[in-house]
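Appendix B, example 12.
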Amino acid sequence: MTDALSVADLMHKPAVVVHEGITLADAAKVLDANKVGAAAVLDGGEHLVGMVSERDLLRSVGHCIDPGSTGINEVMTRDPVTLRTTDTVAAALDIFRDRRFRHLPVMEGHRVAGILSTRHLVRVAHIEEVQPAGSAPPELAPRGLEGVAVAETAVGDVRGEEGFFHYRGYNAVELASRCSFEQVWHLLVEGSLPDDQELAGFTARAVAARRLPEGIADLLRQISTLPNYTPLSALRSAVSVTASALGSAPTLDISAEQVRADSLRLAALAPVLLMRLHRHHQGLAPVDPHPDLGYAAAYLQMLTGERPAPRTARALEQYLILTMDHGFNSSTFTSRVITSTGSDIGSALTGAIGALAGPLHGGAPSRALAMLDAIGSPDRAEEYLRAEIGAGQRLMGFGHRVYKTDDPRSTLLREVATEVGGDQVEFARHIEATALRVLAELKPGRRLYTNVEFYAGVVMNSVGVPRDMFTPTFACSRTVGWTAAIAEQAANNRLIRPSALYVGPAPPRPLPHGYGAALRAA
């Protein structure tokens, strides 16, 4: 089949081109706008002089090269190997394998007619070398599954272009403004906003579920003394052993009602586990949650040992509601993948916390505060921010993978922070305004706005949550969303088992001559 196909049949055409002398930042915009991984570089006479790829641009950022002032001629591949439109795909495959290229320009005479990438070739190679005769290869999804819908959900959704997200159709920001944690918890896991009677019954069950199972109290004390202790890793371990102590059974073997009951128990226990671990680690006696306090107020009471002021508890509650769920994020997807195997809820939650622990997902409220600390005073803001952006550093608390406008969570948390008050709030608002102005100037067209991390850190700091507890606090509220996703997956389950496109050496490969002779002799 590859002998019959020509490069012209597969290449991206017309070729995406840039001209030498433009900056790395401008080249990145061209690649992003055209959704390609590489572009041909032409001189003033429209002749091919090089190739520039996303890898070149990323490598330059890693070396702290200023993308706004550095020309692509400093990082591009000069005088690249080329293909012709009449070359066979088989010949192109040989060049890609031997030379380890990812993109090559395709010439028609002296003109760049297109660009061929490994993505084009692996599909053909996959048909001939890996797929059984007569079967079709899977389509290669975008990296990171961006824009790919992998399941149906009724729990919630994020509309990034609109700056809007919802829980079961209700505006999540409005829910955080007007509802209690327990009301929204009921909405996510039971499917509806509760009336007064339903809320009372649900709250009573949630309060009763805070009781630790036998033997866990001593284990928490031991976990808190482990070397290299971090609150989030300790919570992950605590959830795992607690689920085991509760006899968490495979979701494949239990009813939907039992799935919801087990989910409620573990979601109610998450803050209890976290706060016991924290106080043990600090050398303090643990504090049991008072039964007449709601989720957020009990959280602060277990943290400090004192009943919190209503305004303080409400500020934390609003943050917790805003972070209960957020579409098919990495940790939610992880929980569903684990559940799809029929595994137990404890395993799914443990995996979800593991995914949340990654710095690319768990957020950086504490890092956003660290940036405020590094700036120190309002008069240093612009100088600091320009230097960070110029060095290619990401500003913590700005930009989001999904939102291309204001993050609605940040909008509400700015109001919450202002209501709580304090010197840090005014300082944060000054830094935000300066950062947005500088980003608009230095990164035009990038649509970088304040995200949830920025004011989340300010709010949690204002209500007394220690910085190393920011992401674990996020994990506790997100447990509600995870359990809603787990229940949904278990109710209409199919094993999640995607395919991959093999791009290694063509199989089957013969073993080297004489390899394994010593083992056979033994």
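Residues 126-137 have pLDDT under 50 and may be disordered. The CA atoms of residues 42 and 48 lie 5 Å apart.
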